Amino acid sequence: TPEGLQLNPHLKWGLLTLRFYRLKELAAYKIHGRTDESQDPLPLFFQGSGIEVNVTGTELWIEIEVDFDVYEMWAWTALNGAFMSRQMLMPGTYSLCLFRGMSPEPVKNVRFFRELQAMSEDDDCRLLVRGFRSDGEFLPVRESSCKLEFIPASNEPSGCLQTFGDCREGQIPRCSAVLQV
Protein backbone atom coordinates (compact mmCIF):
# COMPACT_ATOMS: atom_id res chain seq x y z
CA THR A 1 0.00 0.00 0.00
CA PRO A 2 1.42 3.47 -0.84
CA GLU A 3 2.51 5.52 2.17
CA GLY A 4 -0.37 7.43 3.75
CA LEU A 5 -3.02 5.14 2.21
CA GLN A 6 -4.68 2.38 4.18
CA LEU A 7 -6.98 -0.41 3.15
CA ASN A 8 -10.41 0.07 4.61
CA PRO A 9 -11.02 -2.89 6.93
CA HIS A 10 -14.72 -2.01 7.17
CA LEU A 11 -15.58 -2.77 3.52
CA LYS A 12 -16.12 -6.44 2.81
CA TRP A 13 -16.90 -6.08 -0.91
CA GLY A 14 -13.83 -4.21 -2.13
CA LEU A 15 -10.40 -2.85 -1.50
CA LEU A 16 -11.23 0.84 -1.31
CA THR A 17 -8.32 2.87 -0.03
CA LEU A 18 -8.74 5.67 2.44
CA ARG A 19 -6.07 8.23 3.07
CA PHE A 20 -5.47 9.61 6.56
CA TYR A 21 -5.21 13.41 6.69
CA ARG A 22 -3.93 15.21 9.77
CA LEU A 23 -5.59 18.60 10.15
CA LYS A 24 -2.30 20.37 9.36
CA GLU A 25 -2.32 18.65 5.95
CA LEU A 26 -5.74 20.08 5.07
CA ALA A 27 -6.09 23.60 3.72
CA ALA A 28 -9.88 23.45 3.74
CA TYR A 29 -11.84 23.06 6.97
CA LYS A 30 -13.68 25.35 9.38
CA ILE A 31 -13.44 25.36 13.16
CA HIS A 32 -16.51 26.35 15.19
CA GLY A 33 -16.14 27.71 18.70
CA ARG A 34 -13.19 29.05 20.60
CA THR A 35 -10.17 26.79 20.68
CA ASP A 36 -6.44 26.81 20.14
CA GLU A 37 -6.21 26.31 16.38
CA SER A 38 -2.43 25.77 16.54
CA GLN A 39 -2.85 22.51 18.47
CA ASP A 40 -2.54 19.18 16.71
CA PRO A 41 -4.68 17.30 17.57
CA LEU A 42 -7.40 19.98 17.74
CA PRO A 43 -9.11 20.26 21.15
CA LEU A 44 -12.86 20.89 21.22
CA PHE A 45 -13.23 22.51 24.64
CA PHE A 46 -16.83 23.68 24.89
CA GLN A 47 -20.33 22.54 23.97
CA GLY A 48 -21.02 23.69 20.42
CA SER A 49 -17.39 23.63 19.36
CA GLY A 50 -16.71 21.54 16.31
CA ILE A 51 -15.25 21.13 12.88
CA GLU A 52 -16.85 21.42 9.43
CA VAL A 53 -15.55 20.07 6.10
CA ASN A 54 -16.67 19.88 2.47
CA VAL A 55 -15.51 16.66 0.89
CA THR A 56 -16.14 14.47 -2.14
CA GLY A 57 -15.74 10.70 -2.01
CA THR A 58 -17.72 7.69 -0.91
CA GLU A 59 -16.87 7.80 2.79
CA LEU A 60 -15.46 9.95 5.56
CA TRP A 61 -14.21 8.97 9.00
CA ILE A 62 -13.04 11.31 11.76
CA GLU A 63 -10.26 10.17 14.06
CA ILE A 64 -10.83 11.35 17.60
CA GLU A 65 -9.29 10.97 21.02
CA VAL A 66 -11.75 10.92 23.91
CA ASP A 67 -11.27 10.72 27.63
CA PHE A 68 -13.34 11.37 30.75
CA ASP A 69 -13.54 10.19 34.32
CA VAL A 70 -16.95 11.37 35.52
CA TYR A 71 -19.05 12.81 32.65
CA GLU A 72 -19.34 10.87 29.41
CA MET A 73 -18.64 12.78 26.21
CA TRP A 74 -21.40 13.29 23.62
CA ALA A 75 -21.21 14.49 20.00
CA TRP A 76 -23.55 15.07 17.08
CA THR A 77 -23.05 15.08 13.32
CA ALA A 78 -24.84 16.64 10.37
CA LEU A 79 -24.60 15.86 6.66
CA ASN A 80 -25.62 18.57 4.16
CA GLY A 81 -27.44 20.44 6.92
CA ALA A 82 -29.47 17.41 8.07
CA PHE A 83 -28.99 16.01 11.56
CA MET A 84 -27.49 12.52 11.23
CA SER A 85 -26.61 11.26 14.68
CA ARG A 86 -26.09 12.01 18.34
CA GLN A 87 -24.02 9.58 20.32
CA MET A 88 -22.02 8.98 23.43
CA LEU A 89 -18.30 8.69 22.71
CA MET A 90 -16.30 6.02 24.47
CA PRO A 91 -12.81 6.71 25.86
CA GLY A 92 -9.89 5.96 23.55
CA THR A 93 -8.44 6.91 20.18
CA TYR A 94 -10.47 5.64 17.23
CA SER A 95 -12.11 6.50 13.92
CA LEU A 96 -15.82 7.29 13.83
CA CYS A 97 -17.76 6.94 10.57
CA LEU A 98 -19.41 10.20 9.45
CA PHE A 99 -20.73 8.77 6.16
CA ARG A 100 -20.08 5.89 3.77
CA GLY A 101 -21.60 4.34 0.68
CA MET A 102 -22.26 7.74 -0.90
CA SER A 103 -21.86 8.75 -4.56
CA PRO A 104 -18.26 9.92 -5.02
CA GLU A 105 -18.79 13.10 -7.09
CA PRO A 106 -21.15 15.36 -5.11
CA VAL A 107 -19.64 17.60 -2.44
CA LYS A 108 -20.87 16.69 1.05
CA ASN A 109 -20.89 19.25 3.86
CA VAL A 110 -20.16 17.48 7.16
CA ARG A 111 -20.24 18.94 10.67
CA PHE A 112 -19.02 17.27 13.85
CA PHE A 113 -19.79 19.01 17.19
CA ARG A 114 -19.09 18.42 20.84
CA GLU A 115 -22.29 18.27 22.88
CA LEU A 116 -21.01 18.49 26.43
CA GLN A 117 -20.07 21.64 28.27
CA ALA A 118 -16.60 22.04 29.73
CA MET A 119 -16.54 20.10 32.99
CA SER A 120 -14.27 21.62 35.61
CA GLU A 121 -15.10 18.73 37.97
CA ASP A 122 -13.64 16.21 35.51
CA ASP A 123 -9.94 16.88 34.83
CA ASP A 124 -9.82 14.02 32.31
CA CYS A 125 -12.73 15.34 30.19
CA ARG A 126 -11.42 15.97 26.66
CA LEU A 127 -12.27 15.58 22.98
CA LEU A 128 -9.47 15.91 20.43
CA VAL A 129 -9.79 15.75 16.63
CA ARG A 130 -6.73 13.97 15.21
CA GLY A 131 -7.72 14.01 11.54
CA PHE A 132 -9.88 12.45 8.83
CA ARG A 133 -9.84 9.34 6.65
CA SER A 134 -11.40 9.64 3.22
CA ASP A 135 -11.19 8.54 -0.40
CA GLY A 136 -12.28 12.02 -1.52
CA GLU A 137 -10.95 15.53 -1.89
CA PHE A 138 -11.36 18.25 0.74
CA LEU A 139 -12.75 21.52 -0.60
CA PRO A 140 -13.09 25.01 0.96
CA VAL A 141 -15.90 25.67 3.42
CA ARG A 142 -17.80 28.89 2.71
CA GLU A 143 -17.72 31.48 5.48
CA SER A 144 -21.11 32.49 6.87
CA SER A 145 -22.34 35.97 6.07
CA CYS A 146 -23.48 36.44 9.70
CA LYS A 147 -21.82 35.46 12.95
CA LEU A 148 -23.19 35.77 16.45
CA GLU A 149 -20.77 35.64 19.36
CA PHE A 150 -21.32 36.35 23.04
CA ILE A 151 -18.47 38.25 24.66
CA PRO A 152 -18.29 38.75 28.42
CA ALA A 153 -18.74 42.30 29.71
CA SER A 154 -15.47 43.85 30.86
CA ASN A 155 -16.53 43.70 34.51
CA GLU A 156 -17.25 39.96 34.32
CA PRO A 157 -13.79 38.34 34.31
CA SER A 158 -15.13 34.79 34.39
CA GLY A 159 -17.12 35.27 31.20
CA CYS A 160 -20.74 34.50 30.51
CA LEU A 161 -20.05 31.18 28.80
CA GLN A 162 -18.29 29.85 31.88
CA THR A 163 -20.80 31.11 34.43
CA PHE A 164 -24.10 30.87 32.56
CA GLY A 165 -24.93 27.42 33.96
CA ASP A 166 -24.04 28.52 37.50
CA CYS A 167 -26.28 31.60 37.65
CA ARG A 168 -28.20 32.07 40.85
CA GLU A 169 -31.19 34.34 41.22
CA GLY A 170 -30.10 37.94 40.78
CA GLN A 171 -26.58 36.96 39.59
CA ILE A 172 -27.06 36.69 35.86
CA PRO A 173 -23.81 37.64 34.10
CA ARG A 174 -23.95 40.62 31.76
CA CYS A 175 -22.78 39.88 28.23
CA SER A 176 -22.44 41.90 25.10
CA ALA A 177 -23.59 40.34 21.85
CA VAL A 178 -21.62 41.12 18.72
CA LEU A 179 -23.26 40.63 15.33
CA GLN A 180 -20.92 40.66 12.36
CA VAL A 181 -22.58 41.13 8.99
Write up this protein.
- The chain has 181 residues and is an all-beta fold.
- Helix content is 2%, strand content 45%.
- It has 1 helix and 14 strands, in the order E-E-E-E-E-E-E-E-E-E-E-E-E-H-E.
- It has one helix spanning 160-163, and strands at residues 5-7, 17-22, 30-32, 42-43, 50-55, 60-67, 73-79, 82-89, 92-99, 108-114, 126-134, 138-139, 147-152, 175-180.
- 21% of the residues are buried.
- Mean pLDDT is 79; it is low at 10-15 and 156-181.
- SS strand fraction: 35-45%
Largest sheet composition:
6 strands, antiparallel
Q: What general outline do the C-alpha atoms trace?
A: globular
Structural class: mainly beta
Count the E strands.
14
Approximately how much helix is present in the residues? under 10%
H/E element sequence: EEEEEEEEEEEEEHE
Q: What Rg do the Cα atoms give?
A: 18 Å
- Contiguous helical run count: 1
First and last CA, distance: 48 Å
